[in-house]
Structure formats: C-alpha cells, structure tokens
Design a protein that fits this description.
The chain is α+β, with helices and mostly antiparallel strands and 111 residues long. The chain has a two-stranded antiparallel sheet. Strands 3-4 form a two-stranded antiparallel sheet. The protein has 1 helix and 6 strands; from the N terminus they run E-E-E-E-E-E-H. The radius of gyration is 31 Å and the shape is elongated. Helices cover 21% and strands 30% of the residues.
C-alpha cells in the first residue's frame, strides 16, 4: 500500500473466502485516512524460477472515510420480518369473500 511515494504497509496474502470463492489470496488493509492510494501486488516463484514468471502490477484506489468492515458470516439467513398489519388485507379479503358467498347462498335459498 503506497501513498505519496511512501510504502505504508506490506500485508502478506493469505487464503480467504469471499462470496462463492474459497481459498483465494487476500489481505486485510486498514487505510489511515481517506484519499488515493496505490495498491501494488508482486510475486515470484518460491523454489523453481521456471514455475512462472515474476510479476508486479499496481493500480490506484480511492478510499472514502467510513467505519471498518465487519466480518461477513459464512452463511447469511434471511429472516422475513412480519409487520403488524401484514395479516389485515388477506383477512379482510377472506372475510368479505365468505360473507359474499353466504349472502348469495342465503338469497338463493329464499327463492
């Protein structure tokens, strides 16, 4: 993590799970303040230099002020909320339908 040509931190990548991806390389970074930072990622083979070519790339990110992120639970279960008036419309509609049917039956039986 670089700001104003000064290296702020060099976190080590570790295996993380994000959304449906498991074991992808990632790191947790806390930025000191809002601003534009350069993220530089580099890598080289540990043992065999022919395993892959060394690489290095960088890109700028804009950081906005805010609160630190909380850990995302492995599985989030959505619990539907029940509003106190959620029962009102179906119950009223059902009552009107029953009363209408009863009125029609009663009227038919009178004839």
């Amino acid at each position: 993590v670089i700001s104003n040509n000064q290296t702020l931190s060099q976190p080590t990548l570790q295996a993380i799970s994000a959304e449906q991806y498991k074991g992808i390389p990632g790191a947790e970074v806390t930025f000191p303040k809002a601003g534009i930072y350069t993220l530089e990622i580099s890598g080289k083979p540990k043992v065999d230099p022919d395993e892959f070519n060394a690489f290095k790339f960088a890109y700028d990110v804009t950081v906005q002020a805010g609160t630190s992120a909380q850990s995302t639970p492995a599985a989030v279960t959505h619990q539907p909320t029940v509003n106190a008036t959620d029962w009102l419309l179906p119950t009223t509609s059902g009552a009107i339908a029953v009363l209408t049917c009863a009125w029609i039956v009663k009227r038919t039986l009178r004839k």
